[in-house]
Amino acid sequence: MDEKNFLSKVKGKIKNGWNAYGEATRNMAVETLEYEYGEMENIFGLLVLGAFVGFPSPPMQITLDLLPEMEKHFRIMLNKVDVAESPLSDLLSAFDVI
Fold first, then answer.
1. Rounded CA gap, 61 and 67, in Å?
2. Number of domain units in the chain
3. For residue 21, what are the domain limits?
């Protein structure tokens, strides 16, 4: 009876460990996907509104069609252009405050 009880305890601990590992990897996968989504959104914003940093712009009709979707990125780029010459802006940009 002791051997069965011991084996069931070991089996339960292994199962709990495996479940904890699975949950941790799922959480890490979700965080990675969220980060990648944010980076892809930033790249898209840079492609559409690239004239602010010297990239060639897409045709004006495409930019105007996408402008309602790009409101957040447009505001961020305008803020960065407004404070581009300030030493304080460099510090805040490093900490991603805006």
1. 10
2. 1
3. 2-94
Q: Spell out the SS3 assignment of the chain.
A: CHHHHHHHHHHHHHHHHHHHHHHHHHHHHHHHHHHHHHHHHHHHHHHHCHHHCCCCCCCHHHHHHHHHHHHHHHHHHHHHHHCCCCHHHHHHHHCCCC
Neighbour count for residue 45 (Cβ, 10 Å): 19
Over the stretch 13-59, which tens digit does the pLDDT of each residue have? 888 888 888 888 887 888 888 889 888 888 888 888 777 677 887 88
| Helix 2-48 vs helix 71-82: crossing angle, to nearest 10 | 70
Burial (Cβ within 10 Å: 0-12, 13-18, ≥19) of residue 58: middle
**pTM for the full predicted model:** 0.52
Q: Is residue 77 within 8 Å of residue 50, measured between CB atoms? A: no
